[in-house]
Structure to design on (632 residues):
């Protein structure tokens, strides 16, 4: 058996160029496959993390009614108990209370429907990174009276700049229409322009006073120490505050979670196709090698090499030929992906289209380790299956025919 | 005592068609232990066909081959492989050796397939390679050896399994006259000293001259046996 393996191994190197071409094609196949996988996953991961860090947070708490109709009266019940439940839970790293009011914003250029998000800026900074996305102006530092931070897209539509005045009109708790002047203190720009045109941040105390909210809030955004604690914490909080609806980020935006799962399967299918194509190359190469060596194989059968040994020899040969490439391909892909995972790939040329998807202009490829193992297994499996055809072909050789002199 | 007996061997190619070829046309043959026999005859006379059928590489259309007490023509193809491994040594005109193995490994390989122990294998392989005058070449691969040297390795390999007889189909066809003489010297010496039975086909008059018995085929029939 060992001798058979030795011969098979040496046979791989008999036609160096041919073996090299096969090995190279497998290396490139693996590399291309894994790299595209990592790009796809990286893109999705970024989309997901971006969404979480910017506007989803890990957990959101609402009055269940608010989710159907974001009415000003659908505020969170038992506010104080809710807040103390949050304070007592050690898996709650930070939270931010928000008073949300649907409103009309107008400038001299026009009027648009928006959502006013009343926040405590210091709290909010711990659950959302919008404060790091300021295009101009400041995030609630200087202005004393009715400051507002608005999105770039909205600023463009309204034709306003920092220090410009905007008018917010909304119904207060008594259903009276209130109009109030706010001053733009800062303009932010997230990767989602749809978000930017809809959300206006103001200080919670300002909207509270104007809308007569009396300290009521509509939304609490929660951050856990890590994304792994989200599911568990969501369940615990839901039990503690049954009158509110506690939702994890994946409940809020299920499409992000689905996308992750779908991409994983799509990736396997994609890799499967690559390997399928490679299998044909391997089979073809081995069939050629067998045809070329039919006299030698005939000689081996003539002098008494049995079918099992002959079969194994070809199987090993094929597996060697196709799996030498695996470590090389994996290492190459790993280094390549790691390099770009740090450096990022600048796609600003295509960034316009990506932004509306909620993706930044720089992609950081990302591939969880288990993919390397699974793909290795897949490749070895494909190699094994591809080896059966040439091995069977070798068995069909007739020693008398194969051995007849030229 | 006779080790090979053929009875009414026929090998007919394309039997039902116009271009029927009677490669063997009723061959009855008896070969004794210790013979040094040449099978000769013009091209297409059936030499290779006869050797292949005796060696169990090919099946006759009718007739039988009995080696010692075994009717090889009745063995299954798996049994035949095993029978060849333990009973018959082969030397072909070319492609005798495994190119990726050294001379020593090539000779050892056959004993390994027989399941012999490593140290015994190696000892015997070295002895055999010495006997064919290749003690210096044992670690060379076939492509680093001359055609004559390769054929001598093939003879060593054929003997390694301790076969009952050695079949050689035109073993010298690709060799120059010096290598031919050398190879025949070695085969003759082994035949004389060890009593190894050799049956070989050839076109070469110098080879025919060395044979103790010459069987002449024509059109698949034995026309003389001297
Ligand atoms: N597979 C085959 N199909 C049809 N005819 C065949 C086949 N193999 C051999 N023959 C024919 O059988 C006859 C005997 O062939 P064989 O090879 O035994 O002759 P040979 O004496 O060895 O000839 P040479 O001296 O050229 O090697 C020839 O006429 C040959 O053409
Ligand atoms: Mg012939």
């Amino acid at each position: 058996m060992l001798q058979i393996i030795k011969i098979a191994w040496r046979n791989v190197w008999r036609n160096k160029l041919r073996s090299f071409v096969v090995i190279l094609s497998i290396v490139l196949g693996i590399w291309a496959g894994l790299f595209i996988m990592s790009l796809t996953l990286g893109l999705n991961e970024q989309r997901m993390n971006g969404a979480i860090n910017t506007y989803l947070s890990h957990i959101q708490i609402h009055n269940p009614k608010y989710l159907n109709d974001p009415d000003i009266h659908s505020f969170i019940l038992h506010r104080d108990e809710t807040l103390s439940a949050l304070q007592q839970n050690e898996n709650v790293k930070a939270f931010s209370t928000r008073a949300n009011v649907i409103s009309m914003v107008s400038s001299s250029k026009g009027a648009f429907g928006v959502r006013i998000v009343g926040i405590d800026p210091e709290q909010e900074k711990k659950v959302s990174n919008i404060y790091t996305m300021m295009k101009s102006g400041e995030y609630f530092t200087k202005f004393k009276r009715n400051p507002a931070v608005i999105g770039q897209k909205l600023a463009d539509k309204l034709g306003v700049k920092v220090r410009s005045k905007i008018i917010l009109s909304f119904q207060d708790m008594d259903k009276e229409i209130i109009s109030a002047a706010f001053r733009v203190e800062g303009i932010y720009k997230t990767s989602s322009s749809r978000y930017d045109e809809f959300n206006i941040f103001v200080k919670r105390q300002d909207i509270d006073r104007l809308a007569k909210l009396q300290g009521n809030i509509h939304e609490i955004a929660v951050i856990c120490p890590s994304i792994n604690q989200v599911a568990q914490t969501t369940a615990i909080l839901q039990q503690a505050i049954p009158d509110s609806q506690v939702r994890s980020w994946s409940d809020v935006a299920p499409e992000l979670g689905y996308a992750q799962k779908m991409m994983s399967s799509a990736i396997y299918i994609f890799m499967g196709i690559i390997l399928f194509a490679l299998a044909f190359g391997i089979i073809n190469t081995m069939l050629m090698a067998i045809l070329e060596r039919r006299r030698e194989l005939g000689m081996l059968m003539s002098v008494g090499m049995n079918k099992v040994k002959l079969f194994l020899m070809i199987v090993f040969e094929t597996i060697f030929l196709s799996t030498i490439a695996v470590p090389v391909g994996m290492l190459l892909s790993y280094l390549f992906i790691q390099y770009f995972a740090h450096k990022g790939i600048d796609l600003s040329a295509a960034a316009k289209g990506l932004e509306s998807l909620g993706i930044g202009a720089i992609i950081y490829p990302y591939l969880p380790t288990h993919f390397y193992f699974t793909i290795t297994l897949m490749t070895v499996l494909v190699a094994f299956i591809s080896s059966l055809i040439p091995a069977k072909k070798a068995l069909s050789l007739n020693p008398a025919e194969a051995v007849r002199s030229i | 005592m006779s080790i090979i007996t053929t009875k009414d061997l026929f090998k007919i190619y394309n039997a039902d068609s116009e271009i029927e070829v009677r490669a063997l046309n009723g061959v009855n043959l008896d070969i004794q232990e210790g013979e040094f026999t040449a099978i000769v005859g013009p091209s297409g006379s059936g030499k290779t066909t006869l050797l292949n059928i005796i060696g169990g590489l090919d099946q006759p259309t009718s007739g039988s081959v009995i080696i010692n007490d075994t009717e090889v023509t009745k063995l299954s193809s798996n049994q035949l492989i095993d029978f060849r491994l333990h009973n018959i040594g082969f030397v072909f005109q070319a492609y005798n050796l495994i190119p990726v193995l050294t001379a020593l490994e090539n000779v050892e390989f056959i004993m390994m397939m027989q399941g012999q122990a490593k140290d015994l294998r190696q000892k015997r392989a070295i002895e055999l390679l010495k006997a064919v005058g290749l003690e210096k070449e044992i670690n060379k691969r076939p492509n680093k050896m001359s055609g004559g040297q390769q054929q001598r390795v093939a003879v060593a390999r054929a003997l390694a399994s301790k076969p009952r007889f050695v079949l050689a189909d035109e073993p010298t066809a690709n060799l120059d006259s010096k290598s031919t003489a050398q190879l025949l010297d070695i085969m003759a010496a082994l035949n004389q000293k060890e009593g190894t039975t050799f049956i070989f086909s050839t076109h070469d008059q110098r080879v025919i001259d060395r044979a103790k018995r010459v069987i002449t085929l024509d059109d698949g029939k034995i026309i003389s046996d001297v």
About this structure: Chain B touches chain A at residues 48, 52, 55, 57-58, 78, 81-82, 84-86, 90, 92-96, 98-101, 109-110, 112-114, 157-158, 161, 169-170, 173 (CB under 8 Å). The CA atoms of residues 216 and 222 of chain B lie 6 Å apart.
